[in-house]
Design brief:
8-stranded mixed β-sheet, binds zinc ion, alpha/beta
């Protein structure tokens, strides 16, 4: 799955008056004086990691969190207190060790037995797209409506509550988990008086009713559209309501998606950031929905959000990026001292395994189709060489193993032996083979796994898409640990629900929650390894390992505080642990 990586449907310029840059720029204020001050204090600190800072007499910590479990870094012994000054960690230890940092001005936070981790990072979450989807569209997905009957019942109720002639629009429909493809007849049974459009969670498809076809002016004899858009037909040759790919979906979207105002865009992003903070994230990385001309306004907005943000731009959108690179940005540097940073360039190498468009070296189960990469080997080589010439790392979306082959060929050809470019990443790397894990290790390339694939689709991969043997090696985190290859875990929001705890739990258990089965037990990893994949290794994959990802002296004071220590519960219970607070740069951003 990767709607975000594939479909920019809701980021088309036609939905924005004057482009998102103008919109966001008007809607958000400059960073506050306070956040500038915090940054300048932080920038003046030159504590080396691991060393205790020296303080002048009378100087103390701004903040001390005490009375809980501080899990400062994976593998390190737990401490009970942590001190912060100027938004950075200045000491971690027993409370008595930190007593010299306590003054009358120090704020004391009693953890009351709670557990503090370095802030959890989602290294691949389409922040802008997810924000707009959550803000503007009704969620009809599996999490809300696990059965087809519940879904259809909800749509029926919507039709009853909506004036005739107005659109009913749903998103996140999951054909694998909610009973197969929708049909025009099913949606006609909901209403013939309202146009209905239901967008699939895979991002490539939608289903519409007859009223929607009429409203969009789609006649029975419609042909294929440029850009791959086409319409499904039943055995009788008539339109069956299925709509494929962006150019076809746009025929409908222009009727129900009004102009996105600055207020809507800013509010959507603000609400989404608050939501991801509430499930434990302190940093989201946007892999390629942001465009270079949106960097300035987004930087301003970033200072007001409940979590840090980071972004890569899509290949093809790098025009305008040069001034930022010339200022030493990219590869993880914060833009103008803000909570927003730039990383690299994203390329989408293939499609989705759920729609059998990921490119494999062997056919899908019960099929002769192997999918096809979006670019051939020569094209991809030229594209990756262009990214390297910009001085930036590359992130290549590869769901199938054939795509990983040509992506690694391209990375080897461009970057082999080169240093200083940041970590080159394979996004998803879902069907990576054992030899490809070893090759990534040899090339210094790292995978980022959408571990909710196993949680939601593990059984479908095993029974419908790949068969048991290949599904057992999907998202092969265990093989990475054996090879000494760092990996990270992501949600690919809005393609799966935000939240690091479900990713951690699934990496440890390999449980598919749909049928409770274990998919690929050999690929399970330890809790240490799973947490590292959403903290320190995630920070490193965004070029920020020197500032984020662990709680060491001199690093940013980003915390995720959990009610319960995941090391004390059964792995299956980890996903349900309550997030108590999140902090960014020493400021509380969320409290339950
Ligand atoms: Zn993707
Ligand atoms: Zn994506």
């Amino acid at each position: 799955m990767c709607r975000g990586c594939i479909s920019q449907l809701f980021l088309q310029d036609q939905f924005y008056s004057g482009g998102l840059a103008g919109l966001l720029g008007q809607a958000v204020a400059m960073p506050t004086r306070r956040s500038f001050m915090a940054y300048s204090v932080g920038a003046a600190s030159v504590f080396s990691a691991g060393a205790q800072p020296a303080f002048a007499a009378g100087e103390g910590a701004d903040l001390i969190l005490r009375g809980g479990t501080i899990r400062a870094m994976v593998g390190a012994p737990a401490a009970s207190a942590i001190a912060v000054k100027g938004g950075k960690v200045v000491a971690v230890g027993a409370e008595s060790d930190l007593s010299g940092l306590r003054t009358n001005d120090t704020t004391i936070v009693d953890l009351a037995g709670r557990t503090v981790f370095p802030g959890f990072i989602d290294p691949h979450n389409h922040t802008l797209l997810a924000s707009l989807v959550f803000e503007l569209l009704d969620d009809v997905g599996y999490a809300r409506f696990p059965t087809r009957d519940q879904l259809l019942g909800h749509l029926k109720q919507e039709a009853g509550d909506t004036p005739k002639g107005q659109w009913i629009v749903g998103s996140n429909f999951d054909n694998l988990l909610q009973g197969g493809d929708l049909t025009r007849a099913e949606l006609d049974a909901i209403s013939t008086d309202h146009p209905i459009f239901v967008w699939y969670t895979n991002g490539h498809d939608a289903c519409v009713n007859s009223a929607a076809l009429t409203a969009a002016g789609i006649a029975e004899d419609v042909g294929d559209l440029p850009g791959g858009g086409h319409f499904g037909r039943g055995p009788d040759g008539k339109l069956n309501g299925l709509v494929y790919e962006e150019s076809a979906m746009l025929k409908f979207a222009v009727h129900f998606l009004g102009k996105i105002t600055p207020e809507v865009a800013a509010k959507a992003t603000t609400d989404y950031a608050r939501h991801v903070a509430s499930v434990g994230n302190t940093l989201l990385h946007e892999p390629g929905t942001l465009r270079s001309d949106w960097i300035e306004p987004f930087t301003k907005l970033a200072g007001t959000l409940a979590c840090r943000t980071s972004a890569s731009v899509m290949y093809g959108d790098t025009k305008g990026l040069e001034p930022y690179i010339a200022r030493g940005l990219g590869k993880g540097a914060p833009v103008d001292g803000s909570l927003f940073s730039l990383y690299g360039v994203k390329i989408v190498g293939d499609g989705s395994n759920q729609t059998e468009t990921g490119a494999q070296t062997k056919p899908y189960l019960n099929s002769t189709s192997k999918g096809a990469p979006n670019f051939d080997a020569a094209q991809l080589k030229a594209m990756v060489a262009e990214v390297k010439a910009l001085g930036l790392p590359v992130q290549i979306h590869c769901n199938g193993d054939e795509t990983i082959d040509i992506a690694l060929d391209a990375i080897e050809a461009a970057y082999a032996g080169a240093t200083g470019y940041g970590v080159n990443r394979i996004e998803h790397a879902t069907m990576a083979r054992p030899d490809q894990v070893l090759r990534m290790k040899a090339l210094g390339v790292q995978p980022s796994f959408l571990m909710n694939h196993v949680r939601l689709y593990g059984a479908a991969y095993r029974d419908q898409i790949f068969g048991p043997e290949r599904a057992a090696f999907m998202d092969p985190a265990g093989a990475c640990v054996k090879a000494g290859l760092p990996f990270t875990l992501h949600t690919d929001g809005p393609c799966s629900p935000p939240g690091p705890l479900a990713l951690i739990a699934t990496a440890v258990t390999r449980r598919c929650i749909i049928d409770k089965s274990i998919v690929g037990p050999d690929q399970a990893v330890s809790l240490d390894d799973a947490i590292r994949a959403v903290t320190l290794d995630a920070a490193r994959q965004l070029g920020q390992g020197d500032r984020l990802g662990s709680l060491e002296t001199g690093k940013e004071a980003d915390f995720t505080i959990l009610e319960t220590d995941p090391y004390t519960v059964s792995p299956d219970a980890i996903a349900d642990i309550k997030v108590s607070e999140t902090w960014v740069a020493g400021e509380r951003k969320f409290a339950s």
